[in-house]
Amino acid sequence: GSTGSPGPIVTRGGLVFLGGSRDKKFQAFDKDTGKLLWETTLPGFASSTPCTYKSNGKQYVAISVAGNKESPAGYVMAFALPD
User: Fold this and answer.
1) CA–CA gap between residue 72 and residue 38 (Å, rounded)
2) What is the rounded radius of gyration, in angstroms, for the C-alpha atoms of the chain?
3) Predicted confidence (pLDDT) per residue in 34-50, tens digit
4) How far is Cα 65 from Cα 46, in angstroms, rounded to an integer?
5) Burial label, 46 (beta-carbon count in 10 A; 0-12, 13-18, 19+)
6) pLDDT above 70: residue 3
7) What is the reported pLDDT for 16?
8) HEC profile of the chain
9) Are the C-beta atoms of residues 12 and 34 closer than 8 Å to each other?
10) Strands 15-18 and 9-10
């Protein structure tokens, strides 16, 4: 991230999720090694610190994304974590 951007979260399983970079990436890192484990490009800039939640026994991480031409109101995007 950069100054003034959303912060990271760390899951109990040791994943660090970080958004808010100017390249619109949303990334997951291994807490112990710092290794990049996963990334995706968001349709806009991450505009919040990610959150995590469980539904029906499955864990998810969600993030708010700023709007763009296609969706001026923005998005809330959720991603399922692997079992």
Assistant:
1) 27
2) 13
3) 999 999 999 988 989 99
4) 4
5) buried
6) no
7) 97
8) CCCCCCCCEECCCCEEEECCCCCCEEEEEECCCCCEEEEEECCCCECCCCEEEEECCEEEEEEEECCCCCCCCCEEEEEECCC
9) no
10) antiparallel
Centre a 10 Å sphere on the Cβ of residue 8 and count the other Cβ atoms it contains.
17
For residues 53 and 36, what is the distance between their CA atoms, to the nearest angstrom? 22
Strand partners, 55: 58
Q: Which two tokens stand for residue 83?
A: 């079992």
> Residue 40, Cα to own-chain centre: how many angstroms?
9
CA proximity to 34, closest of 51, 15, 19, 50 = 15
pLDDT in the model for residue 4: 66
Structure tokens at 4: 């003034």
CB 19 within 8 A of CB 50: yes
What is the chain's length? Answer: 83
Q: At residue 30, what is the residue type?
A: D
